Give the backbone structure.
Amino acid sequence: MSDYGIPTLKENIDRETVDQVLALDVDKYKYGFETDIESDMAPKGLDEDTIRFISAKKEEPQWMLDWRLEAFRRWQTMIEPTWARVKYPKIDFQDQHYYAAPKGSSGPKSLDEVDPELLRTYEKLGIPLSEQKILAGVQEDGNGEATPFSGNVAVDAVFDSVSVVTTFRKELAKSGIIFCSISEAVREYPELVQKYLGSVVPVTDNYYATLNSAVFTDGSFVYIPKGVRCPMELSTYFRINERNTGQFERTLIIAEEGSYVSYLEGCTAPMRDENQLHAAVVELVALDDAEIKYSTVQNWYPGDKNGKGGIYNFVTKRGDCRGKNSKISWTQVETGSAITWKYPSCILRGDGSRGEFYSIAISNGHQQVDSGTKMIHLGKNTSSRIISKGIAAGFSDNTYRGQVSCHRKATNARNFTQCDSLLIGDTCGAHTVPYIESRNSSAVFEHEATTSKISDDQMFYCLQRGLSEEEAVALIVNGFVRDVLQHLPMEFMVETQKLIGISLEGSVG
Amino acid sequence: MSTPMLEIKNLHVRVEDQEILKGVNLTLNRGEVHAVMGRNGSGKSTLSYVLAGKDDYEITDGEILFNGEDLLEMEPDERAAAGVFLAFQYPIEIPGVATMTFLKAAMNAQRKSRGEGELSTPEFMKAVKEAASLLEVKQDMLKRPLNVGFSGGEKKRAEILQMALLAPQLCILDETDSGLDIDALKVVSEGVNKLRGPDRTMLVITHYQRLLNHIVPDVVHVFSDGRVVETGGKELALELEAKGYADFDAETAA
Ligand SMILES: Nc1ncnc2c1ncn2[C@@H]1O[C@H](COP(=O)(O)OP(=O)(O)O)[C@@H](O)[C@H]1O
Ligand SMILES: [Mg+2]
């Protein structure tokens, strides 16, 4: 700031943090409502017929069905992994639905055809689906509150197993950008899907990824043509609504040579006593000189304060820096889910490619988080950067698990890893599990890790200035995650600052 | 006469089974500036923490009235909102939280507890600008995380800056002069003097007399081994400087 007059963006954000922190509701999970809407569902259970049912519902070509069936056969031979530091009762895969769609919505339509009840749901969640409103610059919802998403964001809204609407498609198509549901892409752009689907996360990759390959229902598809800078943020908003239903979404993003895209992903679910499974697969492909920035705010229902209910979030996210000098950057804010098992990774295949991982993982109550990243250096002169901020409160467990590896031929690989954990109270745990493998002597990998607590002195100092205990914790935690916060797009930064406060409510006093 | 702003009556305080304050009596009227002088370890900071409501202190006897109300019943943040401010002897670092952010959080938190609306950004900026120029605080410092990497002088200035912004009724300054060079001492003292007023009471805790050349007190108390052993006018500070604490200790012992 040159003078005390007009604040810069950064300072605006700082102020915003506090404003948001101060404006916190006492209420905990504010996305926990349920939408009363009639659904079209697959019967409970999982066998080849379930998969045929899903594939038929989506009017898929034969090759897609075959792909799914092959994955399913493979999955039946696999064993659920147990290496993560998480505990949960065995999942009965036969005791859930694998497909649920709002009645009469077999696929995305134009806005005026979408069930108003669904539009209201997204409105309640603060997701603008109305293009006119955005274009007209209206940024307030019915309660006069600013929505977390304001400005130019194209949204794909996924409700249970289907994408209900994708906004701004025509606008984007002008630059040759494809932004649609994956189901639609399978039908409309089979060559692209066949070429890239499963090319980053193979069908056989891991238990949940293989399951997802068999039963995935919807998700987003993005294709950015050569040399195009996507003019707006693309966003998918996932909502689980139905009971006893798993959500298995599949996202595929392809950035052609010299292109750029920033993609945002948000998720919420109603509060329910039973656990629900969410096993997504996200694949990113960046070709020569392309850049993909992928940001997530994961706020699935975390369960109640006794650890009852909540989402099991078992997700495989991987980006392939396939081209030279390509770049993939993952930024994640993990506040929700009963259990999170998630390692957004980068394969640094292209020479000079770069991978980044910025993470804020907050656990409270009885939440369990086992998350981190893998940076796999294959090309020459590849670099990666990892900044992870784990905050554990209540009775939660928060593990950072990260792998940095360097292939024999990857000369001059560089990695910097910074892992900071913050403990609130003394009934929670934070753990850091780094795996470092280097097969090339020119590699330089740096790893720094710290664990700290919010000190009584810091709390007292804040209270002495008039902050309540919860305001103090939220402020201190926002300070702790500042380095990562700065990597989030504006839309998510504001939401995140709010979320931090909400997620940590009840963690003190 | 009106109710004193602060009345401390026969205050006994223990920390970890050790009695630190052994019957403190003090009465501060509205608008007065009192100095408490005492050697290291005599319990001055303990007194300031107890006033501000820090945990870990066991009050075994006595009472504290703030504007006639029981201060010990109030939570630390309630005391702050009611107008009790402590400028810490050792200000605490808050990593990642810009000083500016912290200031606004504190101001709005207090306003909220008092049922007042939040400050608008221009109002806030104006208030900060005024306070910062009073204390010669540079803008750059306001962007840095609070107290992180601040020099001793910067930390103390930041404390008084907060005091100026929060406009408390009762200001407790714990060794605000320590860590200040002579120029900084002048700036800070002048800042404090400008904040003096008929509705504001100050308890200035110090080890050395030199601060009191700049912030001239109405009343001086000599503190020794957990209690007030002598009370007088501003000349008492000079006497103390000349004689040293030993004489007063002897009086206590006698
Ligand atoms: N938290 C504490 N635990 C144990 N002893 C303490 C604690 N706080 C203060 N003391 C002791 O109380 C006495 C008074 O300390 P303090 O109030 O800091 O004195 P002053 O500020 O006058 O130098 C000292 O002997 C100190 O060691
Ligand atoms: Mg002291």
User: Anything to note?
Assistant: The first strand of chain A starts at residue 39 and ends at 41. The CA atoms of residues 181 and 220 of chain A lie 4 Å apart.
